[in-house]
Amino acid sequence: MKQQNLQLDEQGRLRHLLTIEGLKRQQIIDILDTAESFISVGDQQVRKVPLLRGKTVVNLFFEASTRTLTTFELAAKRLSADVLKVNVSTSSAVKGESLLDMLRNLEAMQCDMFVVRHNDSGAAHLIAQHVAPHISVLNAGDGRHAHPTQALLDMFTIRRHKKEFAPLTVAIVGDIMHSRVARSQIHALTTLGISELRVIAPKTLIPAQVESLGVHVFHDLKAGIKDADVIIMLRLQKERMLGALLPSEQEYFRTFGLTEEKLKLAKPDAIVMHPGPINRGVEMDSEVVDGPQSVILEQVSNGIAVRMAVMSMVLGRPPAEESGG
Amino acid sequence: MRISIQNGRVINPANNLDQVTDLHIAAGKVLAIGNAPEGFKPERVIDASQQVVCPGLIDIRARLREPGQETKTTIAKETLAAAHAGITTLVCPPDTNPIIDTPAVVDLIHHRAEQAGYARVLTLGALTQDLEGTQLAEMYALKKSGCVGASNALNPIKNTAVMRRAMEYAASHDIIVYLHAEDPWLANGGCAHEGAVSVRLGLPGIPEAAETIAVARELQLTEQTGVRAHFCQLSSDRAVRKIARAIHDGLSITADVAIHYLFLTEMDIGYFNTQCHVRPPLRTQRDRDGLRKALAEGVINIICSDHQPHDDDAKLAPFPASEPGISGLETLLPLTLRLVDEKVIGLSRAIALLTQEPARLLGLLESGQGGTLAVGSRADICIFDPEQFWTLTPETINSEGINTPFMGWDLKGRVTHTLMAGKVTYGNLHHTHD
Known about the structure:
Chain A has 325 residues and is α/β, with parallel strands linked by helices. Helices cover 35% and strands 14% of the residues of chain A. In chain A, the strands form two sheets. In chain A, strands 7-6-5-8-9 form a five-stranded parallel beta sheet. In chain A, strands 2-1-3-4 form a four-stranded parallel beta sheet, sandwiched between helices. Chain A starts with 24 loop residues before the first helix and ends in a 10-residue tail after the last helix. Chain B has one domain (55-362): TIM Barrel. In chain B, 28% of the residues lie in helices and 23% in strands. Chain B has helices spanning 75-84, 103-116, 139-144, 160-172, 184-187, 196-201, 208-225, 237-248, 285-297, 332-341, 347-354, 356-362, and strands spanning 3-12, 17-26, 29-33, 44-47, 52-55, 57-59, 87-92, 120-123, 125-126, 150-151, 177-179, 192-193, 205-206, 229-231, 253-258, 302-304, 381-391, 410-420, 423-427, 432-433. In chain B, strands 1, 2, 3, 4, 5, 17, 18, 19 and 20 form a nine-stranded mixed beta sheet that branches. In chain B, strands 9-10-11-14-15-16 form a six-stranded parallel beta sheet, sandwiched between helices. In chain B, a hairpin with a 2-residue loop joins strand 18 (410-420) and strand 19 (423-427). Chain B is globular and about 65 Å long.
């Protein structure tokens, strides 16, 4: 039981952000509202607010990333935090033992927040369980498990276009099996209470019992995106061809690639999203990527505001009030 | 030493004995049950009133980490923990380092256990050289040096022809083959049952079919080769149904389960609890219930601990990178007794699953070398208080490994004395007087 509340402090406020699962609807809304207030910071001439002045944020990436790492760095800097990047090459195959040892060392340097990306599911939970009480952990992607800030920025982007979540039909297309982004999106969308959530992929890319997460499964793209309000395309890794999950990129594109023609089956005002980086001509046609319904670049800039929101909420909590009042 | 154990409830499933009586020991053997022989003068008397006196427990799968992983623990330390748990015989799988594929390693393990003197340690020899699944190990030499069977432990034999030959060769020398049925292709890289929990946590899954397909293959080959096969560590309902069907059809096989599969499911992983990382993985409620049913029906006839003591670091890693296994010696008896409380099996049957049945598999029962309290048999004895409650804490664990998901559980039934070949290896002094 105690483990479930790992990411909340005694007053139910966000202490770490490890997963969307278990967050209340209102907590997600609060994050989105806070992000809204930061969106203008990027447009100002001085793109900084002093909320986290004197705080030190450590980006601890055990796995390669450009977009996520960069936006976390920008977010922290716009909040006036000191940012430290620790390079951990994936080849050094950091085991849990040395992982925790490394954290001890960083803790000794008076850091306040670890932003962690790791290739094993559960890494962020493990770290959150063992950090000193004053340190917060943000999960920037752990294995196939979760990528909560990505899901939040996607929710933010959806809300900017669709206002209300309740009537929406959302379709997530592609490699659900290996996608931490999809898992976090599913938790976010079901918590926000959308009308219908669909996942669309061949059986080889759909994990067993995915229905238990509250989604409807489609193996046909056309049927799956019919009348959808939001279409989220997932990145297809090239190594999936090696694991006998798919025959070829060409065949994947033929069957599950999004083209302008197929997009017409969705609602006329449907938006198309992608967490990036995109494989043009594999997940979707260039015409769709660059087309009027695509909000892909918006997602990237929204990522900064959403990460600023999470960082400021987690690190900027006023000290716990005396209880009993 | 001459010992009298007085007023205990003596339960010996091997001859259907269950009565409050005395048991007398001399020269390492059971001398008499009931009245002492005329002129018998015990040097020590154990008052076992309100307690159960049964054969010493036999745990057919326990990793003692020696040789090879002495940083985790040693044979001396783990056999001492076994004595605290009422266990008098342990069987060590061949995946030590070096692997048990030469008589020298067998001798080393036996020697270390004898030096320590807390429990008898038997060994399984390798089925294939280096457990690599390509060439046969010297099974005959290993048998002659004392191995009680052959196994490839958790290392798969991918090549079906090699498995067939290994079984044929083992059958030629009447060697029992211990099988861990898991299809390596389907299990590939997995660390949790493929299902509701693995999808939620994004853990690479091991499908049920990894077990059922391997069980089907091994059953087919067992039938074809005529080998004596024992199926280890079953985890799924569908797999035990296949075993049940094969037994019903007349195939002479046996099967065991590790105690934690009878209590835990995938749900216990919660948010990445690495103490629940085991192999094969914890499966669903339906599987747990199926295993319990198979136990009640006699399809599964042995419960073991599958003891795998670890140091702390082994579990301080992200779930997929943590080492699988539970330190289980000291929960084996109390959890088995819990099955009695939960009315899955009766008390006498519970004791049989831990004593008589494994002794039969190991070839100890007929010769009175274990699993029975019949007069003349080796005095391996466990005395426990069936009503004593206690809480599992790191302090109550004698094994070097405190890696257990049962930490904090309230358990019922506690060992008070253990005797191995007539020698007291563990004894609560409050209950004894010389």
